[in-house]
Structure formats: structure tokens, C-alpha cells
Amino acid sequence: MEQLSPASTLTDAFHGLGISVWTEDWRAVGQAILALRAAGIDPVQHLATAPGELARLHATVQVTDVNNFTLELMGMPDKRMLIGSLAEVVPNSAQTFARWFAALARGDRFYRFESRVRRLDGSLRDCLVMARLPQDPEGLARLFVCVVDITGYKADQMRLTEAERAVDRALRASAMGLVTAAIAHEVNNPLAAVVTNAEAALRWLRRPNPDTVEAEAAIVAAIGDALRARDVVDRTRALLSNAPPRPVALDPHHAIRDAAQFVQRELRLAEATLRLEVMADTPRLLADPVQVQQILTNLLLNAAQALVAHDGLREIALRARPHAAGVLIEVADSGAGIPPDRLLRVFEPFYSTRTDGIGLGLAICRTAAEAQGGRIWVSGAPGSGACFHVLLPAAP
Ligand SMILES: Nc1ncnc2c1ncn2[C@@H]1O[C@H](COP(=O)(O)OP(=O)(O)OP(=O)(O)O)[C@@H](O)[C@H]1O
Ligand SMILES: [Mg+2]
Q: Which residues surround ligand 2, an ion (CB under 5 A)?
């Protein structure tokens, strides 16, 4: 059997490899670096200010051999086109030469950089250029440089980055959409109240004997509602952007009375009666006042809406009582209730069974309750109405 000599095995590997390999002679550059160092000159700084010297050294680098695959990479038919001065066989390599020079002058052990290589037909390929840099000047006589074509890989990476950006944009847009929808949802109630109060003021003024006292009271109320709309926009945005909460100690009587006040119009439309009840010894709440109002008004609006077309008793109870973990507020109605399999689903965003519902009310309630460090859940047997429970921390 024919034995392959180690030398011929290496030559086979050299030419058979699917990567481009160049052998280059960098001795003149190595000597120049040594000479500059011996003269106490920093080689990198020196060459940065002496472009002529850089070009001269560049021309001294000789390409002594390339493997067969290099011809494929460069689109060149003949090896002789690549043998000779690096500056001539690879035009436009001056910039990469400066990088090589700096790596050698620093004493780096590896050179690894991305470069663009121009093929004979003028097309450009993205390549990774690598070499192990010898530490002794003699090693520079035969420097092995590997060149890997990464054009396809780079294109894939670009596509991946572009796809990631597209996903990011879509996520931002949908998050923005949610914020916008939530704000639109929450300003509805205060804006309707502004209109109601402003209309009332007009009616007082247009009487044969205008009642300016009543008109003024209605305008003051309208201003209050407009300020509430502004706060609601501010606190809804804060809620959805994870801004730190602003808890204050709240009297449960006030919290409950204010919420009832805000839904007067809807209660009238539903012809529902509202009962308020605060048990003795109910401590003060520790929560963001605007967000507490958002929770309670959403629950009261839902209760009123559940009663609009309801045959039978139309009652809502809004209660507050002490609880081991804080203050428990309950909104119970005498409507049709919620089937057991939907008790969790009703809190999901965009879940709605109402023809004109968006399905955001309870999702906002849950986010707001949890932002206070609290909890919200619903109970109630079908037919006996729904009861929403909100547990909020108590002030110390
Ligand atoms: N008190 C209630 N009685 C019966 N069903 C209720 C009650 N409250 C909520 N639900 C159910 O939960 C669903 C979701 O309520 P949610 O407040 O999140 O949205 P919505 O009221 O439908 O619309 P909107 O976004 O305008 O508030 C309602 O569509 C309804 O099916
Ligand atoms: Mg609702």
C-alpha cells in the first residue's frame, strides 16, 4: 500500500480545505517594528502620523502562496494573480494593513477581523480574516492567514436583526394600543360627568329667572370632573408603565362616597339603588386615591350595566370592612351573576359579553389592585348576582 508522506498530507489539506488559506511573508514589517521600538518610538503612533511609511511597509508584505479554495473565493482563474506584493494583489487593503500592523506591534497572539473582499468580477464578500501571530520575527516569514466567507451568515444575521426589530415595533405598537384603549376607557366616565354638569349649568342660566348660585355649583362640579379626567389619564398611564405607586392614607367613607358620586348618572339610567356601608373599625386604606376610584367606579359601572335589562330587584351594595390583610371592599349586585367557569376569565383584557363593551374595565381593576399590593376576585352563585371583592392594604 502506498504510504502518504506527512508533507504531501499537509499539502493535500492545504489545498483541499474548504476555507481560503494564504501564506504571507511579513518579515520586513516585523523588522521595522523592532527598529522603531529600539529607537524608543511607539510603532503605532509613529505610523499613524506617517502615511508614506505605512504605504511603504504595506508594499513589503509578500503573498507567497494561496490554496485552491482561495481562487474560488476570489473568483480568479490563476494562482499567479494572487502571488506578489499584498498591496498589489489585494488593492484597497491599506486600511486592513494598518490593523495588522497594530496587532503585530501590540504583540497580539491572534488577528481576527471582519473584512470585505473584492472578487475579480467586482462583487464584494464579507469575510472573517484570522491568523495566529508568531511572537518571533522568523515566524513572520510564513504567516498563515485563513479567510472564511461569512456573506450568507451576515445576511442571515441582518435578516434576524430586522425581524427582531419588527417584533419589537409590533410589541410597542400593541402596548401603546393598550395604553390608549385603557385611557380612552377610563376618561369616558369623567368626561360624561363634565358634559352632564355643564348642561345643568346652562339650564340654570337659561331659566326666565337664571339661578346663578345653582349654575355656579354645576360649573364647579364640571371643573372637578375635568380635573378627575386629567388625573385618570395620568394615573392610568402610570399604572401601565409600572411607575411607582403613590399611596396615601384614605378614609374608607370618603373613598366609597366619592365612587358613588361618580356613577350617579349610570345608576339613574339603570334605575338601580345603591347602598353604602362601612363597618365599624374599618381602618384607613393605603393606596393611590385616583386608582382606588378607578377600581370602584369600574365595578359600580359593571354592576349598573348588569342591572339595566334585569327583571327583578335592582340593587347594588358597596361595602367596606376590616380584614386580616387590610381593608376588604365589596361591590355586590342583584343581577344575573357570572357563570362559575367565567369567574377568572372576566379579568382578562378584551373579554366582554356586552355588545358595547371593550372588556378593559376589570383588567384595569386587577392591574390597579395589584399595583397597590392588593387583590381582586369575584364570587356569587348564578342567579344571585355578582360580588366583587377588593382587598387593599390598610394604613398603619
Ligand atoms: N356585575 C357583573 N355582573 C355580571 N357580569 C359581569 C359583571 N361585571 C363584569 N361582568 C362580566 O365581565 C365582563 C368583563 O367586564 P369588563 O368590565 O372587563 O368589560 P366590559 O364591562 O364588558 O367592557 P368595558 O371595557 O366597557 O368595561 C363583562 O362583559 C361581563 O360579562
Ligand atoms: Mg366594564
A: 302, 361
